[in-house]
């Protein structure tokens, strides 16, 4: 390895150590207590020199938000790939979401602003939209598999995501236990499947084409 390559590797490793230090501080003290000076102290590096890697704290946090969404997307796609049918894919997707939050609670809080984190720059939307795309595909596969209506697909996706996100938030706030969240999401999925079936059955039973058009 040449001198230039070694220098680039060292810079990348130092940058990663800064990100890891920020996460460690957040896990122990919360994101509101993460400062550039604390990060520098933790890795025993010059406070001023950190700004050669990150212009400010917002830029550093944004890097972690991007990382969090990349990890979450990979976890959800991996969970979907293990399923044998669309309903199992939806269950594995939701449990994969829960497991991500338990494994990376500090990242999850940062990604969704649960620790009072605010950015002076716009939060990224691209990764969040990719997560939404995975959820849309998963729910649509279930509806198509059963021949159920997709008329309210967007609403159904947001209800599913809102339920899972809400259970994660309650768990991170110590309102419920992680195991309880997994049980509740199973009950919620069963309720959603019944509701989606009922919605389609009701639409079919009231369709003019089945009862004849009025004279």
TrEMBL record:
It comes from Ktedonobacter racemifer DSM 44963. Keywords: DNA-binding, Transcription, Transcription regulation. The keyword Transcription applies. Residues 12-72 form the HTH tetR-type domain. One of its GO terms (molecular function) is transcription cis-regulatory region binding. It comes from the Bacteria. This is Transcriptional regulator, TetR family. Residues 35-54 bind DNA. Pfam families: TetR_C_33, TetR_N. Gene3D superfamilies: Tetracycline Repressor, domain 2 (1.10.357.10).
């Amino acid at each position: 390895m040449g001198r230039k390559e070694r220098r680039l590797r060292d810079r990348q490793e130092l940058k990663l150590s800064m990100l890891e230090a920020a996460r460690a501080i957040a896990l122990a003290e919360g994101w509101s207590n993460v400062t550039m000076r604390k990060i520098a102290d933790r890795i025993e590096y010059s406070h001023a020199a950190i700004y050669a890697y990150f212009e400010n704290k917002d830029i550093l946090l944004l890097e972690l938000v991007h990382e969090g969404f990349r990890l979450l997307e990979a976890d959800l796609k991996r969970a979907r790939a293990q399923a044998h049918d669309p309903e199992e894919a939806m269950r594995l997707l939701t449990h994969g979401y829960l497991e991500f939050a338990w494994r990376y609670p500090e990242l999850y809080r940062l990604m969704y602003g649960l620790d009072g984190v605010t950015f002076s720059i716009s939060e990224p939307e691209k990764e969040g939209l990719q997560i939404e795309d995975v959820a849309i595909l998963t729910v649509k596969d279930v509806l198509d598999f059963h021949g159920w209506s997709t008329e309210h697909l967007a609403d159904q996706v947001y209800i599913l995501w809102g339920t899972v996100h809400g259970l994660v938030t309650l768990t991170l706030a110590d309102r419920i236990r992680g195991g309880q969240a997994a049980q509740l999401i199973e009950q919620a999925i069963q309720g959603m499947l019944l509701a989606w079936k009922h919605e389609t059955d009701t639409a079919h039973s009231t369709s003019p084409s089945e009862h004849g058009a009025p004279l």
